[in-house]
Design brief:
Helix content: 40-55%
CATH class of the largest domain: Mainly Alpha
Structural class: mainly alpha
Number of strands: 2
């Protein structure tokens, strides 16, 4: 009896979780993308993934280009590509498991416009980190969060998972498990270490999470796990202080990660080291920063462009 497409998708998601060690967020996204494909592709009971061909893929792309999100907006080209990338990964998995399906390499991804890299200048970072009211414990927490993000280049999910016992203030470093289960060491600047220590010192609770919430009901069981500040809450905190500091950029948590990398490269760090500190699997991902930080190219332009004479 042939496996249903839904069952194959479930097996693929299990593969991502167990063998590829993908994050829950990645698996959630892939589940959504493939469920959309499944609902579009197989309304008829006898339709099988082996029936998929390039002509059908083109029709699916037309469907995606006309699909609207819950707010009534059409999907951007980048978002449409995410659906197609998920489909290609699924097909690659099926071929690996001896299913005779369309070769994923035959499905091209259209080029999208390069998105400008947003990062903060040093003066803007200084305005941002000094925006919280540090006369209050919550403000000390927020200052420590911003300082730590800029100091380490952590992803917001990595920051949210931190526990107090993992932070070595004296050595100015600690380990994290990033995307794909890749471990790396991150380093804390002197200023960030100062504010993280201040925050840990003012905490009178025994909760395990490094960053906790101050609103809602206090829940003490399970080492205070339910007190942990969520990813969404951290994102809202950064947005709040971007507004208060009047930063002229729609900055996010990821903007601070970009700012971390840009700051290092601008001051002479090599690309491989920055790749390691960001936890990028491929250096090509890190190379997006070089066009704004390459001092040699800037010096050549200043020395030889006639407009600088």
């Amino acid at each position: 009896m042939e496996n249903s497409l839904s069952k194959l998708i479930d097996e693929f998601l299990e593969y991502l979780e167990i063998e590829k060690n993908c994050s829950k967020l990645t698996i959630r996204d892939y589940r959504h993308y493939l469920e959309v494909f499944n609902n579009w592709f197989s309304p008829a009971p006898n339709k099988k993934i082996e029936d998929l061909n390039l002509q059908t893929v083109r029709k699916y792309r037309v469907y995606l280009s006309n699909r609207v999100d819950p707010k009534g907006l059409t999907l951007s080209r980048v978002t449409q590509n995410y659906y197609v990338i998920a489909l290609r990964s699924f097909l690659k998995y099926l071929i690996k498991n001896d299913h005779k399906v369309l070769e994923p390499a035959k499905i091209d991804l259209p080029k999208t416009e390069s998105r400008s890299l947003k990062f903060l200048e040093r003066e803007q970072v200084d305005r941002l980190v000094t925006a919280p009211d540090t006369s209050k414990e919550e403000g000390v927490r927020d200052r420590a969060i911003i300082e730590l993000l800029f100091s380490t280049g952590l992803r917001v999910s990595e920051l949210a998972k931190l526990n107090k016992d993992r932070i070595n203030i004296d050595r100015r470093e600690f380990g994290v498990i990033g995307k794909g289960g890749r471990a790396r060491v991150v380093f804390i600047s002197d200023r960030a270490a100062t504010w993280v220590k201040k925050y840990m010192d003012v905490r009178k609770d025994r909760f395990r999470p490094l960053f906790i919430r101050y609103s809602g009901k206090i829940v003490e069981e399970n080492s205070g796990e339910k007190m942990r500040l969520t990813v969404r809450s951290i994102e809202r905190i950064i947005k709040k202080y971007v507004r208060l500091a009047r930063i002229p950029i729609d900055a996010t948590v990821h903007t601070l990660r970009h700012s971390f990398a840009t700051d290092l490269l601008t001051n002479g760090a090599d690309l491989r080291s920055v790749q390691e500190m960001l936890g990028h699997k491929n250096i090509s991902t890190t190379q997006i920063y070089t066009h704004v930080t390459n001092k040699q190219l800037r010096e050549v332009h200043e020395a030889f462009h006639s407009g600088n004479k």
